Amino acid sequence: MSEVNQVEKQGLDIMDIMQRIPHRFPMLLVDKIIEEEPMKRIVGIKNVTINEGFFQGHYPGHPIMPGVLIIEAMAQTLGVLILKEVPAGHVPYFTSIRSAKFRGPVRPGDQLRMEMEVDKVKGGGMMMTAIGKAYVDGKMICEAELMFAIIKL
After folding, report:
1. Where do the structural domains in the chain lie, given as residue ranges?
2. Strand, coil or helix: what is 55?
3. Chain centroid to CA 68
4. Would you call the peptide bond into 59 cis, given omega within 30 degrees of 0 as the criterion?
5. Catalytic residue among 23, 58, 62, 90
6. Active site residue 58
7. Taking a C-beta distance cutoff of 8 angstroms, is the pair 151, 93 a contact?
8. DSSP-assigned beta bridge partners for residue 145
9. Out of 44, 62, 99, 143, which residue is the most buried by the measure of CB atoms under 10 Å away?
10. Quick one: pLDDT at residue 125?
11. Full-model pTM
12. Could you tell me which residues come within 8 angstroms of residue 94 by beta carbon, excluding any fewer than 6 positions away?
């Protein structure tokens, strides 16, 4: 069975995700991986709940997920993909975010689906560009081009 089919069938749960990326509560913004094709494509899920700390102040009476955290959730989803392939002790750092567009709100109770595709890899795999899209109920709510450098800690 190919790796992409195996992940599609079984998925990666939160414990698997925490083995790959260094983020922890309250900054861990990916709950599950449902598709993965090594160094090409990954699809992650964030179940957005009213218990998220940012909803206390963004905005009282009209809670919406901050756009910067939607981008961060997309980046963490990509991190699950790329940190499997880079040497231990390395992490991805943003170098640029381009063409970010927000097309709708993410509210408590929504399931955020992040689809990330690696676009370019340079510097022996230590620099990369990815195209990301995020959806709620099949409607695209965010898209962006994310650039990263893989940095040794």
Report:
1. 3-152
2. helix
3. 12
4. yes
5. 58
6. yes
7. yes
8. 98, 131
9. 44
10. 81
11. 0.91
12. 75, 146, 147, 148
Domain 3-152 fold is: Thiol Ester Dehydrase; Chain A (3.10.129)
Side chain identity at residue 81, one-letter code? L
**Distance, CA of 103 to CA of 119 (rounded, Å):** 22
Q: How far is it, in rounded angstroms, from Cα 18 to Cα 31?
A: 10
Sequence-distant contacts of 2-9: CB under 8 A, at least 24 apart: 3/36, 3/37, 3/38, 4/35, 4/36, 4/37, 4/38, 7/33, 7/34, 7/35, 7/36, 8/34, 8/35
* Nearest CA among 50, 31, 27 for reference residue 108: 50
Site of tokens 């399931």: 111
Q: Which two tokens stand for residue 120?
A: 């370019």
pLDDT in tens, 92-129: 899 999 999 999 999 999 999 999 999 999 988 889 99
